[in-house]
Design brief:
- By secondary structure, the protein is an alpha/beta fold.
- The protein has one domain.
- Helix content is 23%, strand content 28%.
- The protein contains three helices and eight strands.
- The strands form two sheets. Strands 3-2-1-4-7-8 form a six-stranded mixed beta sheet, with helices on one face.
- The radius of gyration is 17 Å and the shape is globular.
Length: 172
């Protein structure tokens, strides 16, 4: 256990930073493992939340523990801290709204009233360059892609076929 603590304190020295001024695509997923007895997934102590940069396959974060809001917050915070220096960030996930809610508290901004038209109607938006989308699976209704919360006025939006969390490359 001592070597694990020592390595954990030095991990940041070995981790590359996000490419500043470049584009990154963050992909989020979660898995659970049976620990001890066979429990319902919501009661499992073996949840692991992962964030991976899609282009380089760099593993940004992996947090394990009970599936609580603290686990979501810690993992999302680490991934956002890594990615926020990039010029354009695509943040794709698989229909877990808790990540978007945690990210919204970290990465939303208020537009000046002079920047907002009545047709757009949103003052609080994602920061410039951040796109957040969810792939809704068939078990949760019709398969579709949803963009979460309003984007900044000048942020480009990816094609639906680019949003394929869970390594599901079918455009659905």
């Amino acid at each position: 256990m001592r070597w694990e603590q020592k390595m954990a304190t030095q991990a940041q020295q070995w981790s590359p930073s996000a490419p500043a001024g470049s584009d990154v695509t963050i992909e989020r997923d979660e898995v659970y493992t049976r620990v001890g007895e066979n429990h319902f997934p919501s009661e499992s102590k073996g949840w692991t939340i992962t964030f991976i940069e899609r282009g380089s396959r760099y593993w940004i974060e992996a947090k394990a523990g009970m599936k609580t809001s603290d686990l979501f917050k810690q993992a999302t915070s680490t991934a956002w801290s890594w990615a926020k220096t990039s010029q354009y960030i695509r943040w794709f996930t698989d229909s877990e709204r808790r990540y978007a809610q945690q990210l919204w508290t970290m990465a939303s901004v208020y537009l000046k009233s002079s920047e907002v038209t009545r047709e757009y109607g949103h003052r609080k938006v994602w920061c410039y360059g951040l796109e957040v989308a969810m792939k809704i699976k068939g078990s949760q209704g019709n398969r579709r892609v949803e963009w979460v919360k309003p984007e900044h006025l000048y942020t480009a939006i990816s094609d639906k076929s680019d949003v394929h969390a869970n390594h599901n490359v079918s455009s659905g």
